[in-house]
Amino acid sequence: MKVIIDTNGLMVPAQWGVDIFNELEALGYDEFVTPSAVVEEIEKLKGKVKGRDRTALAIAREMLKKCEIIEAQGFADDVVIEVAKSLNAPVFTNDAGLRARLKKEGIRSIYLRAKHKLAIE
């Protein structure tokens, strides 16, 4: 099954030490999709952050190698929602604002709970 991964989700391994791909596979997701707008967001953030966040972004760029990149331009959160709708797939994110929007749209979200385990909402 497919799952959309946003910028925040790709940063989880560096921030919390969680292997997101193993955890997602344990939930039954084996196809990882990221819109190109998320890739662009990561590149833009790279020059704006320092320290731990910069390291997290570097690791996020490495995580992209395991994802299918779908061409989709625009504001990353809007694009993530549109891609999730078109693929009928949940979104992995810890971004509270995006999770609220997903819920409003009837799209399931997957998030990090208790700093070590993924949960589906």
From TrEMBL:
Q: Name one GO molecular function term.
A: DNA binding
Q: InterPro entries under this entry?
A: PIN-like_dom_sf, PIN_9, PIN_dom
Domain PIN: from-to ranges? 1-100
**What Pfam families does UniProt report for this protein, alphabetically?**
PIN_9 (PF18477)
Q: Does the keyword Transmembrane apply?
A: no
Highest taxon of the source? Archaea
Which UniProt keywords are present, listed alphabetically? DNA-binding
Recorded protein name is DNA-binding protein
